[in-house]
Amino acid sequence: MPIDPDVAIGADLGETTFSWTAGDVLLYHLALGAGADPLDPRELRYAYERDLRVLPTFATVAPHLRVFEPPAVSFPGVEVDLAKVVHGSQTVTVHRPLPVEGKAVARSRIADVLDKGKAAVVIQESEVTEPDGSPLWTTRSSIFARGEGGFGGRRGSSDRVAPPDRAPDVVVDTPTLPQQALLYRLCGDRNPLHADPEFARAAGFDVPILHGLCTYGIVAKAVTDAVLDADVTRVRSWSAKFAGIVLPGETLRTRVWRDGGRLLVTASVVERGEAPALSDAVLDVS
């Protein structure tokens, strides 16, 4: 049986010790499209080591920067074919502004496994600290495994975040590059779904698609730039569900609604009739 929730839920996935440099941060930002206007001082905060700031979504790639093999969906109680898997949701909560370089320890576990009938959802949590135990960030992610449901697990509750019934306060259009996925995979996600046309077709897509976490980072940057004047230190957390695919070269349209101390966000693809890309997205700010 590919999924055994009794074994999976709560399983300790161990510790990972890792480090990063300013060069890793610069590469990540460039892979999101930073520096498109190299004369903009705000862009240079992402793309030049002088006064470099770290977008909190860097936390999603930092533990895997030195990984050069495609990922495997193999955990205690979970064995799933990579071609059946898409990213479902992602949350990053930062406990302080991320340092430009550093060392850290990630401790991960499977928080839950949900049975959606035709699919399974596996939720993973990681707590990341400095070697001395000082907290850096917490991540929570889910993967959606098509065809792996029906194992008798609980379905889980809805956590929809509907935007207000009014016009958005901010709308931003962000073009992606045709080579965006090829750039982004250098940050540690070597899933061939994002580079290999044959693998993509076998997984049910006409062409390789953009990494969901690349879209996640691009939209976080767009909101931070448009609403927070590119001040990444004001971001406390960023969460979103992956509502649809993005093809490299397409344009993302991000809508933002101010809601007290948080920003509610949606993102869609302009070229495909505003097809959803991210939904239920919330950026908490200080």
Automatic annotation (TrEMBL):
CDD domains: HDE_HSD. Belongs to the enoyl-CoA hydratase/isomerase family. This is Acyl dehydratase. Gene3D superfamilies: Hotdog Thioesterase. One of its GO terms (biological process) is fatty acid beta-oxidation. GO terms for molecular function: (3S)-3-hydroxyacyl-CoA dehydrogenase (NAD+) activity; 17-beta-hydroxysteroid dehydrogenase (NAD+) activity; enoyl-CoA hydratase activity. Residues 18-147 form the Peroxisomal multifunctional enzyme type 2-like N-terminal domain. InterPro entries: HotDog_dom_sf, MaoC-like_dom, MFE-2_N. Residues 162-270 form the MaoC-like domain. Residues 156-168 have a biased composition (Basic and acidic residues). It comes from Prauserella shujinwangii.
